[in-house]
Amino acid sequence: MDVEFESVPIRILELFKFYLSDQEIKSVIASCPKSDWTLNGWLPVDTLISFKRVKAITTDKNEILNVLVNQGSDFIEFTGDYQYLRRKSPFSSGFTDSISPIEIQTIFAKYGGVENISFGNKEGTFIVDFYEVNPIVNTLVSPIVYEDQRIHVRTIKKPGVEIVKSKIPKPYPINRIIQFGPVEDNVQKEFIKQAFEHYAQVSFVDFDYGNKFGYVKFKQSVAKELVNIIFRDGGVVVRGMEERLDFHPLEGDEEYVYWQLEKIKKEKNLYSQERTINPLLLKTGRLTKKEKQRIKREKLRQRQKQNRGHSLITKGDKSKIKSSLLSSKILDNSNSRSSVKDSFKRKIRMESIDEMFKSLTVVKKSDKDSGMN
Questions:
Q1: Whole-number CA gyration radius for the chain
Q2: Which one of 53, 95, 215, 362 has the minimum C-beta count within 10 Å?
Q3: To 10 degrees, what angle do helices 252-267 and 134-141 make?
Q4: Does 111 lie in the same domain as 61?
């Protein structure tokens, strides 16, 4: 028991070091309710200790705070009321000094024509100018990796230039989309809708059973306002989930990309009949097995439709072939005694001929001529 007790503080420290590491900190921030605190890097303690990996070690909030305050002061700082914490060191971001603009151009050229590469205002950052807008969208939704590290891409505005060229109102609804997740495996779309309808009217939920993330579209522009309301209410409770559901409203580039992806899917006619658009699917560039089968069936139907116009057997041709076959059968049986058995055989013969014509839809001209002879 003593060994287990001594290991708890170490496990707590290691886990919070992982949560606040460069590769994980942004995911943790995204999982926390958005507020003025999180914008400055502060994370709510109650949210962090509700994570499954923390609860697997201990559910005692005082024990966690005692370990972090006394043994984690070298990398963690707290607010005066100990309700929020953040790491002391800033994010280590940016490229190293050894990388050149030519290498940056090589990285981004695969997404589209690069017009210019220039140094950014912050050290280790670059500004990439594309000739067209589509490559910008692709870089925002595609994971870009350089030397095993994820490159974080965002858009910037230049004087007199806008990424979205439109007049007010914008060509898509503003402040109506939130992204939620991750969710448990047994959570259904109806559970998500019921949870959010306690706060606002839901247009529909963009979510497939078995996925971890999804989107909620509201009938009114209330996505941002719901953050503080739901946060004060203690979070979103979804049937089938032990923890509160994490979510955030789509804003700026993220919102623009979402509607661009929906527009692209409409243009490519990639909607399935059973569900709505799923931007997570579009980010991967892959279709589901069900959608592939539907497209395959449609292509087969089109080919069959084209083939129906080639060398079809007419009713007259069928009757001539049938008469010829029956005549030969009657001649073969002319010397035999007519009986119920022979009649039954002829009936079977005629039925088999009918079945042959039912299954025979396309015959080449040479085959038809040989059948007539």
A1: 34
A2: 53
A3: 110
A4: no
Structure token pair of residue 271: 């909607």
| Dist. CA 308–CA 44, nearest whole Å | 67
Q: Say if pTM beats, i.e. exceeds, 0.85.
A: no
Same domain, 82 and 129: no
Rounded Cα distance, 148 and 344, in Å: 79
Please check whether residue 228 lies inside any domain of the structure.
yes
Going by C-alpha positions, the residue among 239, 241, 185 that lies closest to residue 211 is 185
Give yes or no: residues 284 and 183 share one domain: yes
Are residues 31 and 77 both part of a single domain? yes
Does the N-terminal peptide bond of residue 101 adopt cis geometry, omega within 30 degrees of 0?
no
Residue 240 in tokens: 């089938």
State the 10-residue block means of pLDDT for the chain, 373 residues long.
Answer: 58 87 75 74 88 89 91 86 80 59 74 72 67 59 58 53 43 85 83 88 83 86 83 80 85 79 66 44 52 70 68 58 58 50 51 48 44 47
Domain count, the chain: 4
Query: Is the Cβ–Cβ distance between 249 and 227 less than 8 Å?
Result: yes
The boundaries of the domain holding residue 270 are 177-289
DSSP for 227-245, please give it. HHHHHHTT-B--TT-SSPB
